[in-house]
């Protein structure tokens, strides 16, 4: 398993054809939640909100894996139709446009969960 010093290094070491979608994903997260904490966890970009896991993403062989924890995936099942999902992952095939609106919905739903955990 690779280890990376930071998200910049993760993106730089990714295959060239995957770097653009990784940069887009990062930009969506940071522009949606400017106060988000960015780090590497489980050898992939990880984002925390108030110290709690918000979302992870990773350049997989055939898709971009987005890991917003299981709650948002269950809540947004209707919106996620047409995408391959599992309990904790949404898979965006390379060559398919990154669904910015859907990513923002996943982020906002996860923030809502975190705020309600108090």
Care to give the gist of this entry?
The chain has 118 residues and is of the alpha+beta class. It contains four helices and six strands; from the N terminus they run ααββββαββα.
Order of helices and strands: HHEEEEHEEH
Sheet having the most strands: 6 strands, antiparallel
Task: Give the oligomeric state of the chains in this entry, treating copies of one chain as homo and distinct chains as hetero.
Answer: single chain
The fraction of residues assigned to DSSP E strands is 25-35%
- Indicate the overall shape: globular
Q: Would you tell me the overall average pLDDT?
A: 95
The helix-and-strand class reads alpha+beta
Structure description:
With 118 residues, this protein is an alpha+beta fold. The chain has four helices and six strands. The chain has a six-stranded antiparallel beta sheet with strand order 1-2-3-4-6-5. α2 (16-32) packs across α4. It is globular and about 40 Å long.
Q: How is the secondary structure organized here?
A:
Layout: H1 7-13, H2 16-32, E1 37-41, E2 44-49, E3 52-59, E4 63-67, H3 70-75, E5 84-85, E6 90-93, H4 100-116
Which key features would you list for this structure?
alpha+beta, 4 helices, 40% helix, 118 residues, six-stranded antiparallel beta sheet, single chain
């Amino acid at each position: 398993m690779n280890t990376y010093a930071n998200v910049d290094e993760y993106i730089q070491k990714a295959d060239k054809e995957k770097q653009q979608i990784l940069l887009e994903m990062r930009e969506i997260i940071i522009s949606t939640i400017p106060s988000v904490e960015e780090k590497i966890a489980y050898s992939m970009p990880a984002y925390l909100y108030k110290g709690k896991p918000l979302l992870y993403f990773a350049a997989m062989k055939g898709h971009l894996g987005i890991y917003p924890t299981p709650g948002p995936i269950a809540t947004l099942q209707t919106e996620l139709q047409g995408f391959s999902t599992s309990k904790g992952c949404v898979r965006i095939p390379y060559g398919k446009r990154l669904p910015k609106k859907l990513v923002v919905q996943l982020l906002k739903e996860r923030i809502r969960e975190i705020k309600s955990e108090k």
